[in-house]
């Protein structure tokens, strides 16, 4: 009997490692593809156009900040074995409800934009109207959550879409033949440093619901506790690196176009870059990338937003799948019936930049409460780096609100 245990144990260990790796990769891609949406494509294009090769410095700084922020959040969630809103409620009763409200409102605002982006992507690929494209995309997103093992299907769909985006982006980068040497030099010695751009890119990479997407996914998949910290840390860094690969590829593609003196169309900067790089074929590639970026962000925003409210009600927890579907349907209806997001959504978008510093600050406090994390000792270097990120992002949020609020009343 003992020998039988010895012979099966290695197989079980290998199977467990394989499951853990699949979960880690799924969480990393969920986070990354949640970040890589229509806004990601537009921001990267515009900022590269403005800063040229010095935008490489922005990417470098944002990687460092993103890793510090996300590693803190995911580790504390894993050790507490609770979702962000429940941890916040344990730090200060009622705070979790406020955090959940901000996450859901921010997720809804961005999801309307994601649905619009999916419609525009299908429009570029096939010529159908953006609204019909948005409805088709929403149906596909809903179908993902209707299957029996929705979590696994979601992970696989997001991984495939993410890899397709990266492969096509690298192809376009190769076509533009960017000045890589110049980009490398200015990544470390920039001609210009724009702190607002740095904060905007950080907010778009790990702001709002994005940084919680993978952390909550790991928790739902059972990867939690102090023993799981090595896997959780690896997964959090992987998510940032996947986002960074896409960001660098797009940066170099735009830089290749700009360095040749070609004019980018301000009405649709990302599409213009792809068309200039590879003609009509490039425009079709833009459609594929835009659709893949948007549809995966739709899935990520819906999943993460609902994960922030499902623990407040047992009934909602049991029917979380239908709540996610309802979230997607409502976002689609807002786009189809209203069209472009209204001015109110600008305020919600501005508030979204404040979510990460609030959430990260609360979780850093939680990391030192025994009733939440037990005997776990949070690394001092992570605490210090986390506090620095909180201060920096509060500055960004204040700057955003000051500049956005007057626009709402014009």
From TrEMBL:
<feature type="transmembrane region" description="Helical">
    <location>
        <begin position="236"/>
        <end position="258"/>
    </location>
</feature>
<keyword id="KW-0812">Transmembrane</keyword>
<feature type="transmembrane region" description="Helical">
    <location>
        <begin position="344"/>
        <end position="368"/>
    </location>
</feature>
<dbReference type="GO" id="GO:0015086">
    <property type="term" value="F:cadmium ion transmembrane transporter activity"/>
</dbReference>
<feature type="transmembrane region" description="Helical">
    <location>
        <begin position="321"/>
        <end position="338"/>
    </location>
</feature>
<dbReference type="Pfam" id="PF01566">
    <property type="entry name" value="Nramp"/>
</dbReference>
<feature type="transmembrane region" description="Helical">
    <location>
        <begin position="47"/>
        <end position="69"/>
    </location>
</feature>
<dbReference type="GO" id="GO:0005384">
    <property type="term" value="F:manganese ion transmembrane transporter activity"/>
</dbReference>
<dbReference type="GO" id="GO:0034755">
    <property type="term" value="P:iron ion transmembrane transport"/>
</dbReference>
<feature type="transmembrane region" description="Helical">
    <location>
        <begin position="21"/>
        <end position="41"/>
    </location>
</feature>
<feature type="transmembrane region" description="Helical">
    <location>
        <begin position="194"/>
        <end position="215"/>
    </location>
</feature>
<feature type="transmembrane region" description="Helical">
    <location>
        <begin position="132"/>
        <end position="150"/>
    </location>
</feature>
<protein>
    <submittedName>
        <fullName>Mn2+/Fe2+ NRAMP family transporter</fullName>
    </submittedName>
</protein>
<keyword id="KW-1133">Transmembrane helix</keyword>
<feature type="transmembrane region" description="Helical">
    <location>
        <begin position="285"/>
        <end position="309"/>
    </location>
</feature>
<feature type="transmembrane region" description="Helical">
    <location>
        <begin position="90"/>
        <end position="112"/>
    </location>
</feature>
<dbReference type="GO" id="GO:0005886">
    <property type="term" value="C:plasma membrane"/>
</dbReference>
<dbReference type="InterPro" id="IPR001046">
    <property type="entry name" value="NRAMP_fam"/>
</dbReference>
<feature type="transmembrane region" description="Helical">
    <location>
        <begin position="157"/>
        <end position="174"/>
    </location>
</feature>
<keyword id="KW-0472">Membrane</keyword>
<feature type="transmembrane region" description="Helical">
    <location>
        <begin position="380"/>
        <end position="402"/>
    </location>
</feature>
């Amino acid at each position: 009997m003992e020998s039988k245990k010895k012979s099966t144990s290695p197989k079980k260990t290998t199977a467990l490692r394989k499951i853990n790796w699949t979960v880690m990769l799924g969480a990393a891609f969920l986070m990354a593809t949640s970040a890589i949406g229509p806004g990601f494509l537009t921001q990267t294009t515009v900022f590269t156009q403005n800063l040229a090769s010095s935008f490489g410095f922005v990417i470098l700084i944002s990687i460092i900040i993103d890793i510090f922020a996300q590693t803190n959040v995911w580790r504390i969630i894993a050790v507490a074995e609770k979702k962000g809103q429940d941890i916040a409620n344990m730090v200060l009763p009622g705070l979790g409800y406020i955090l959940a409200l901000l996450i859901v409102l921010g997720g809804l605002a961005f999801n309307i934009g994601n649905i619009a982006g999916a419609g525009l992507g299908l429009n570029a690929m096939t010529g159908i109207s953006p609204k019909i494209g948005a409805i088709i995309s929403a149906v596909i997103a809903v179908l993902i959550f209707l299957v029996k093992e929705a979590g696994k299907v979601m992970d696989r769909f997001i991984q495939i879409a993410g890899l397709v985006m990266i492969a096509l982006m690298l192809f376009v980068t190769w076509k533009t033949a960017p000045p890589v040497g110049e980009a490398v030099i200015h990544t470390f010695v920039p001609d210009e440093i724009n702190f607002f751009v740095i904060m905007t890119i950080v907010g778009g990479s790990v702001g709002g619901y994005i940084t919680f997407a993978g952390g909550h996914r790991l928790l739902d998949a059972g990867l939690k506790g102090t023993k799981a910290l090595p896997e959780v840390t690896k997964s959090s860094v992987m998510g940032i690196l996947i986002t960074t690969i896409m960001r660098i590829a797009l940066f170099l593609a735009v830089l290749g176009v700009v360095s040749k003196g070609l004019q980018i169309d301000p009405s649709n900067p990302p599409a213009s870059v792809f068309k200039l790089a590879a003609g009509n074929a490039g425009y079709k590639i833009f459609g594929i990338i835009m659709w893949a970026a948007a549809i995966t962000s739709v899935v990520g925003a819906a999943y993460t937003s609902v994960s922030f409210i499902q623990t407040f009600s047992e009934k909602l927890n049991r029917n979380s799948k239908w709540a996610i579907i309802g979230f997607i349907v409502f976002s689609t209806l807002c786009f189809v019936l209203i069209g472009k997001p209204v001015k109110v959504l600008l305020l919600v978008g501005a508030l979204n930049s404040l979510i990460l510093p609030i959430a990260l600050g609360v979780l850093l406090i939680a990391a030192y409460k025994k009733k939440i994390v037990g005997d776990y000792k949070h690394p001092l270097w992570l605490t210090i780096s986390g506090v620095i990120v909180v201060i920096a992002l509060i500055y960004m949020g204040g700057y955003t609100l000051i500049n956005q609020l007057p626009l709402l009343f014009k």
